[in-house]
Write the structure tokens for this entry.
Amino acid sequence: MAGVGEYLEEARKNAGLTLEQVYQATRIQVWVLQALEEERFEEIGTPAQVRGFIRAYCKALHVDDTVPLEAFSKLLKANPQNQISLSSAPVLPVIRTSEETRQNFAYVALVALLLIGLIVTILTIGSSSNMQDVSKVQDLPKIERLNEPKQNRDTRGVELPQSLVSPLSRHLTS
């Protein structure tokens, strides 16, 4: 029976894929893929993590994961010291921050600020002290129409004596 690493490397080469292409398909770092193929499991993490990487690797290669998982389990049983070193391997936290997430947050913040500004503007205009209650407005003086003839008055509205009013203007106003 082939070892885990040999099985994975052979399956990858038969599929005609590079480690970089497998990384693109699985998002498993290239150094982890290399460690799997070289059976340097202690560098990867806990046995559960190694099993998960083996399953994902096999799924990307479209091969059955039973053979490499059984080989890994036998390796753990045969070498209990390896199991101890595997479980004590450092676990690195996974931090996922993408540019898209940061951009989405910026858009949400911008929209929130615009909405707050709009609400404040509406409230300010609605409660403005410049607005007067219609019931408190006094009646405005009656305004003369511009086209109405001004009989016997000058431009200031002062009544003119009859002697100054031309006979022609009397005929125009009647």
Summary: Residues 98-125 form one domain. The chain is about 55% helix and 0% strand.
